[in-house]
Amino acid sequence: MEKQAVDGARRAFNSGRSRPLQYRKQQLSALLRLIRERQAEIVSALKRDISRSEFDTPIFELIGIENDIKLAERNLADWMAPQPVKKTLLTITDDVYIKAEPLGVVLIIGAWNYPWSLTLRPLVGAIAAGNAAVVKPSEVSKSSASLLKELLPQYLDTEMYPVVTGGVPETQELLKQRFDHIFYTGNSTVGKLVMEAAARHLAPVTLELGGKSPCYIDKDCDIAVACRRITWGKFANCGQTCIAPDYILCHPNIQHRVIEEIRQTLLEFYGEDPKTSPDYGRIINQHHFDRLLALIEGCTVAVGGESDKSQCYITPTILKDVLPHARIMQEEIFGPVLPIVTAGDVNEVIRFINERPKPLALYVFSSNKKVVRRMLNETTSGGVLVNDVMVHYTINALPFGGVGNSGVGRYHGKHTFDQLSHHRACLIKSLAMERLNMARYPPMTPSRLRTSMFFLRSRSGSCDQALRAWAVVSSLLRYSDIIVICFG
Amino acid sequence: MSQEQRAVERARKAFCTGRTKPLQYRIDQLKNLQRFIVERQKEIADALKKDLNKSEFGTPLYETMGLEGEISLAVSKLAEWAAPRPATKNLLTVSDEVYIQPEPLGVVLIIGAWNYPWAVTLQPLIGAIAAGNAAVIKPSEVCVHTSKVMGALLPLYIDKEVYPVVTGGVQETQELLQHRFDYIFYTGNCTVGKVIMEAAAKHLTPVTLELGGKSPCYIDKNCDITIACRRIAWGKYTNCGQTCIAPDYILCDPSIQDRIIEEIKKSVKEFYTEDPKTCSDYGRIINKRHFKRVMTLLEDSTIAMGGQNDESECYIAPTVLKDVKPGAKVMQEEIFGPVLPILCIGNVDEAIDFINQREKPLALYIFSSDNKLIKHMITETSSGGVLANDCLVHFSVSSLPFGGVGNSGMGSYHGKFSFDQLSHLRGCLIKQLKMEGMNKMRYPPHTAKKLSWARFFILNQVELSKLGRWALFALLAVVVAVILQVRAIPATWSSVLC
């Protein structure tokens, strides 16, 4: 079944119909119609999968897809057009440009936490770039997967963009097939397996992974506002966000204040009993529920800690005075549990972060420009956001992706188009002006070498006047061939 | 501790000191590399003569001049490349700093090849240095003399802790690949390319693989065949055909095959005299194994020119094969030698089909005076790069990305592309803790009205650089109005929050 889908997609791609601008725009606008017309069904599926509130779905999932589609529709003709590049003396009369071309058949493996966004945003890029795509939604978000399988064929070219559902065996079967790019969102462990499988066919990959995204709160900042923003980012989708602030680093003197502010904000957001709030989600399944409870063990609970296994419910929880070697600090939490690790000063914070794998996001809360500069300059991460959390995700001009363990490659907006295209270098010369080439042919002599070196050395120079003069001279030389032919 | 482990650990330690970050350090190292190339030209040329019988002119022309150009480009542009790159904002980030900051990745592993050992080993190094990385340099052991010179002399010029050279063969490479790198840059063949990527996968290390394949060369009936053949002969027989972007085979109409053979014969005679074996500009096959490999490829085809050989010198004369069949031995693998098969096809569409049935090549060459035909071929095929009416020279245009696609490779480099490839382009958003009113629309408890405001702001991405000043004021006025509006709904929330 998997092989059939891939073969069908390849046949469809080879027919050439995904290449014309018109086709790509049509498919993109059909996808836009899908998410607008079927929003109610998508919202219901997400409610069933992960208890997502009906308002969070558009904000966290659908708006991002819409943005990308609209951006692509507006700009696709430009993106597809040849991009002229800087010439050299040797190429002054030539056509020199970079052309974006489709790669072929892209495999998109989605994740369960934002199943629509993380599966369809890469698809937007794949379509815009003229590829076919095999879409494999995560089986963990069951309702969304089966809804996607039902809806996508009603809007898009089924052969070109087949949906393949299933679990581990189906994914393994897919990974045996040959793709021209594999786009995977998920965890590092599976990420490695995906890249290994891709290596067998020399398929390039984009791996959107995760890790522990640190959140540093400086003494010098508006702690109330900082904590409100952090609370929003941490507990949205019940903490199951790849760029959720994973843990807090702060000075021990402000730990108590931070806890109080977050507690206060939680009350505002979810009321006395978050279990009854329509805006508070649930853990995706028993396995993750159990995993999270195990992480809390042995730590000091400052807020929350209650849970209800029958609903996969874990109340918003804050842990205080967490030690670096605690179990909860060894893996990405991906749940509504917020550990606070105290650190003496910015140096300690920077060291702490740098001793660990590079995170997907780094958050810094401070009004002190010097502190912000140091944090930015002395650490690295996929992306960095100062004085807020998560919203860098909505700026599609910023490349979204990890570095090191948090991922390979990037996307959003035009970055997705670029990631899923081949940027082909094109140089169109003419058969005229052969005398210019004589210097490069054997038999090599010092004077020929000198001439060649003159031309090659100019490749990096930017002497515009020389170029203009040369343009005139070279045109004359070029026409001199014709003049000689006509009159010679 | 093995020498490989030592080298990697020292490079990482040196990188962690932060000394590669300042631009001045990078520029100094690049200038030292430049001095190395200039001062040691003789040692470099001597080693290449011993390895590949490269002529004294061949060394600067094909190896070192390109490097000097790349170094001077990097030095002159580094400040620009390394600077923050502003990005388009949305209405919610109007007053924020939004930019992309290039950052070093860490420790890069560069595995070179033997055919242009200086060019393909040091050119990635230039990008690695410019981007602020440390780099472990592993030259190919196949070019024995060159890797000795690189190992002995490079550390005398550039920071030997930050850029150690590790020499050795398969075993040493495998040992290196066990360690963790932040990027691996490999030039070579597909088989090893897969092994490299698999090893990289274990540490989630991104890779650039500059591979190869069979680069087709189509000669149209409508073109100046003399000039076309001279350019092709130059591209093919330089370095004895051992160039990743050499025109591998020719596709042409049967009616021009003889003419092509004649013209190539003429050009070869002009370049290398009647007896190329005696000509200092004509190279040798790198070693006996490749000599035997290339000779085997001749077995089931008709020789139209050349075919003479001398195993003791690893010499193979410039050779052309005619009427070659698609199933012939010479058409089953990248030739990487001075053997040029000609396959006859009926028309350009047949040529396109032929090319598309095979793996995507590193380069595609099209010789034609018909621009429409050229555009048609480009549109209907894919390849790493495409060059019309010449061979090889797209390699020296640093504003063009150089790399393959599909089996011919992944990633690209040269010029700024090297810098970007070996950097992490970090998305940065610097906000203020003010204007918290704007954020109310995103906080629970959610309402439909709040959602519609959120949609408005996120959906409208603004190219602020393009807006005129007045439009910007108008925009800000709207934003202020909205803040006032949002703060007014609902009154109960503001009383809770104050």
From TrEMBL, chain A:
GO molecular function, one term: 3-chloroallyl aldehyde dehydrogenase activity
Keyword flag NAD: yes
Active site: 208, 242
Native source species: Electrophorus electricus
UniProt superkingdom: Eukaryota
Keyword NAD attached: yes
CC per GO annotation: cytoplasm
Name of a matching Pfam family: Aldedh
Start and end residues of each Aldehyde dehydrogenase domain: 3-422
Family according to the record: Belongs to the aldehyde dehydrogenase family.
Lineage summary: Eukaryota, Metazoa, Chordata, Craniata, Vertebrata
This protein's name: Aldehyde dehydrogenase
Gene: ALDH3A1
BP GO terms, sorted: aldehyde metabolic process
Keywords: NAD, Oxidoreductase
Automatic annotation (TrEMBL), chain B:
Location(s), subcellular: Endoplasmic reticulum membrane; Microsome membrane
Family matches, as PROSITE patterns: ALDEHYDE_DEHYDR_CYS (PS00070), ALDEHYDE_DEHYDR_GLU (PS00687)
Protein keywords: Endoplasmic reticulum, Fatty acid metabolism, Lipid metabolism, Membrane, Microsome, NAD, Oxidoreductase, Phosphoprotein, Transmembrane, Transmembrane helix
Domain Aldehyde dehydrogenase: 5-424
Record keyword Ion transport present: no
GO annotation, biological process: aldehyde metabolic process; fatty acid metabolic process
InterPro entries in UniProt: Ald_DH/histidinol_DH, Ald_DH_C, Ald_DH_CS_CYS, Ald_DH_CS_GLU, Ald_DH_N, Aldehyde_DH_dom, Aldehyde_DH_NAD(P)
Source superkingdom: Eukaryota
Protein's membrane topology: Single-pass membrane protein
GO CC terms, sorted: endoplasmic reticulum membrane
Keyword Signal carried by entry: no
A Gene Ontology molecular function term of the record: 3-chloroallyl aldehyde dehydrogenase activity
Catalytic activity: a fatty aldehyde + NAD(+) + H2O = a fatty acid + NADH + 2 H(+); (2E,6E)-farnesal + NAD(+) + H2O = (2E,6E)-farnesoate + NADH + 2 H(+); 22-oxodocosanoate + NAD(+) + H2O = docosanedioate + NADH + 2 H(+); dodecanoate + NADH + 2 H(+) = dodecanal + NAD(+) + H2O
Sequence intervals crossing the membrane: 467-486
Active site: 210, 244
Homology family: Belongs to the aldehyde dehydrogenase family.
Subunit field text: Homodimer.
The protein, known as: Aldehyde dehydrogenase
Organism: Electrophorus electricus (Electric eel)
